[in-house]
Amino acid sequence: xxxxxxxxxxxxxxxxxxxxxxxxxxxxxxxxxxxxxxxxxxxxxxxxxxxxxxxxxxxxxxxxxxxxxxxxxxxxxxxxxxxxxxxxxxxxxxxxxxxxxxxxxxxxxxxxxxxxxxxxxxxxxxxxxxxxxxxxxxxxxxxxxxxxxxxxxxxxxxxxxxxxxxxxxxxxxxxxxxxxxxxxxxxxxxxxxxxxxxxxxxxxxxxxxxxxxxxxxxxxxxxxxxxxxxxxxxxxxxxxxxxxxxxxxxxxxxxxxxxxxxxxxxxxxxxxxxxxxxxxxxxxxxxxxxxxxxxxxxxxxxxxxxxxxxxxxxxxxxxxxxxxxxxxxxxxxx
Length: 334
Fold this sequence. Notes:
Layout: E1 4-6, H1 11-19, E2 24-26, E3 33-37, H2 41-51, E4 60-62, H3 66-70, H4 80-87, E5 92-97, H5 104-107, E6 112-116, H6 121-130, E7 134-135, H7 150-157, E8 163-165, E9 177-180, E10 187-190, H8 196-203, E11 208-209, E12 232-236, H9 242-258, E13 263-267, E14 278-281, H10 287-304, E15 308-312, H11 319-330, E16 332-333
Parallel strand pairs: 1-8, 2-8, 4-6, 5-9, 10-11, 12-15, 12-16, 13-14, 13-15
Antiparallel strand pairs: 2-3, 3-7, 4-7, 5-6, 9-10
């Protein structure tokens, strides 16, 4: 199979391929997704096969409108209208009870389905043209860092899928927040750029966090090792004294270099110059910088030949909570 690179002028081609049951990777504001017709069981099964994804890991279904979402739902849960009015289109996925239209292969046999409307114009145009819901996990080999460019998708999946729609780099760079609306209280299953504070402001209700290592996950990102580079990833614990974190980071770099290892340092610009073998900038070190650049940094340092990647942690508040969730899924504390 030859994987085609499509551009925004080729949306009709991408839509036709999806309707025919082919797999097409496409951009969103979060990461690139590997799309299949969510109502076509054979197509969805191929997504699991291509990615090497465990079949008990449910997929997010992308839709173009609230009406299309409602057509897949058994009931409309509390807070659905308030949340979709505020956050759709956007990086918020909602877990709801699904009806018989949704195949079990999409939901890993659960009675719930994860739904969202992406906040990228090209993606919504593709969804409208295809006029089918798209099951779409991240467009990478399972467990690897999520792709934020078409080139990264191509590097992982060339020859395995029909096409990659190149919409440029993903602006947010980190997966959506997943919120369960089927539990007694709204519960975050995976943190993202829509924060608990954002959700509580809209619902005027307490929002909880779920345990992340569920034996039967309701959402992607809850059970398995995710987002990991090939290199060993070590996280420098966060504290609010920058000088202390810089000292700890440089000490860790020296220890690994002295042990004969090729060290990649992925950090804010002020951390550069610790004696690292390879460097990747996380900009000013704000949470949004980490989110946007994190996966690209892991991939670039892998390609450079780093054996260990060191990354200073950040405060686990707001978007920083989502960043630390991804880092700790991919690595461990130094």
